[in-house]
Specification:
Shape: flat
Protein name: Membrane protein
Organism: Pseudomonas syringae pv. actinidiae ICMP 18807
Number of strands: 0
Radius of gyration: 10 Å
Order of helices and strands: HH
Distance between the termini: 17 Å
Keywords: Membrane, Transmembrane, Transmembrane helix
Helix content: over 70%
Structural class: mainly alpha
Length: about 40
């Protein structure tokens, strides 16, 4: 089974890269990814 901390770290890296490249709002991307990716 995949460890949730690794999934969370991976999603954080993806969100951080998108923010660094586009300057878009992080909450718009972070909340859906955490809900679906980690099952929160």
């Amino acid at each position: 089974m995949i460890d949730h901390s690794l999934v969370g770290a991976g999603l954080g890296v993806i969100i951080g890269a998108v923010l660094a490249l586009t300057g878009a709002g992080g909450g718009i991307l972070a909340v859906p990814l955490l809900v679906f990716g980690l099952g929160l």
